[in-house]
Design a protein that fits this description.
367 residues; globular; 13 helices; 4 strands; mainly alpha; two-stranded antiparallel sheet
């Protein structure tokens, strides 16, 4: 919204700053953090008042979790307020990438909110129907990928291959696989998988939000570089015009994440719930599809992949043999059962996240 102030730059030199994505990204980060800090306490107080007993605690979970009984969920509302409010101020709303990413974020957030609402009101872990939830997620993601695909047709062909519907591979500067209309299905899967993987990771205080911020910082750099013709050419990555503007939204994610972490640090005053985790994962997944770095996302977000795979392996193996691979899934609960403290798990998982992000960013130069 404030980007229109660039028009005043001829008269007031200061407003020329609004032309630069880097400036607006920093401003978005500060603004989103400020929004969460200012409104967070009121939101938490309202959630406590309305939810009563708070998020239900799993009966088969680690015993330490029962100490968290009564903690309100839906804290993701703070994060969404920071991201959306800040993005509306600082991002270029004429960008298809910006609007699409925000709509996926809000759409996934609404699904998560409804799921949290059902869990709190019923005091049960059985929220929204799994099949219905996934169906709506795929619908939202599919529509988003369609518009992203159309927008990226600006770079219509690369070496004779249609760019908008193609999958790019890290480590290879010219390797593209044109998926045609199947790219919509593939892209939707990436977004839905990212949303649910982050959702599964959100099980300990601070465990999900910091890796999300790390992924946001990594993809902020990727979006900025992929959207800049000079940098993209230097690094020999695919130039995707317009994606640089996504760095502003990702800056807002970092700021909102820092604000939320203030309240989510042990002992958490509020859990982000599906409202936050599902929307944040969907946001990161959408940016990965827009920037043509879907495979790199699996590296940068490797922690989320590990959490999701632990659940898939646990369920599949139990159905086949009646036995469990892990003491409890997702895998962070397995380590709790082994006797690791919550702080040990969280900090060590953060360290893993940083390492994976560095590895993912390394693919930008290894071509």
């Amino acid at each position: 919204m404030l980007i229109w102030l660039v028009d005043l730059a001829d008269d007031i030199q200061f407003f020329n700053l609004f032309r630069y994505i880097t400036f607006r990204t920093g401003a978005a980060m500060f603004t989103s953090a400020l929004i969460v800090f200012l409104f967070g306490p009121r939101i938490i107080a309202s959630l406590k008042l309305r939810q009563g007993r708070g998020q239900p605690i799993r009966a088969d979970g680690p015993q330490t979790h029962f100490l968290k009984a009564g903690t309100p969920t839906m804290g993701g509302l703070m994060i969404l307020a920071g991201i959306v409010g800040s993005s509306l101020l600082w991002a270029d709303l004429s960008s298809v990438y910006v609007v699409t990413t925000l709509l996926v974020t809000l759409g996934f957030g609404a699904i998560g909110f409804y799921d949290d609402y059902l869990k709190v009101t019923k005091q049960s872990h059985k929220g929204f129907s799994g099949k219905a939830r996934l169906g709506i997620e795929f619908l939202i993601a599919g529509v988003a990928v369609f518009f992203i695909m159309q927008a990226s047709m600006a770079a219509s062909t690369v070496n004779g291959v249609t760019f908008g519907s193609s999958l790019a591979f890290p480590f290879f500067k010219d390797l593209l696989l044109d998926l045609g209309l199947f790219f919509i299905v593939f892209g939707a899967f990436v977004i839905v998988a990212a949303g649910n993987a982050v959702n599964l990771t959100d099980g300990l205080d601070g465990l999900a939000i910091v890796p999300v911020m790390i992924a946001a910082a990594s993809f902020g750099a990727i979006a900025y570089l992929a959207g800049n013709a000079v940098f993209a050419n230097y690094l020999q990555i695919h130039f995707v015009p317009g994606t640089g503007e996504l760095a502003v939204i990702l800056g807002a994610v970092i700021g909102a994440g820092l604000g939320f972490l203030w309240f989510n640090a042990p002992p958490a005053a509020s859990f982000m719930g599906d409202t936050g985790s599902l929307s944040l994962g969907g946001l990161i997944g959408t940016v990965a599809v827009a920037t043509k770095h879907e495979i790199v996302m699996a590296i940068i977000g490797g922690l989320f992949v590990m959490e999701a795979l632990s659940v898939i392996i646990q369920v599949a193996w139990f159905k086949m043999t009646g036995k469990r691979v892990f003491l409890m899934a997702p895998i962070h609960h397995h380590f709790e059962k082994l006797g690791w403290t919550e702080s040990q798990i969280v900090v060590r998982f953060w360290i893993i996240s940083v390492g994976l992000a560095m590895l993912g960013l390394a693919t930008l130069k290894l071509r």
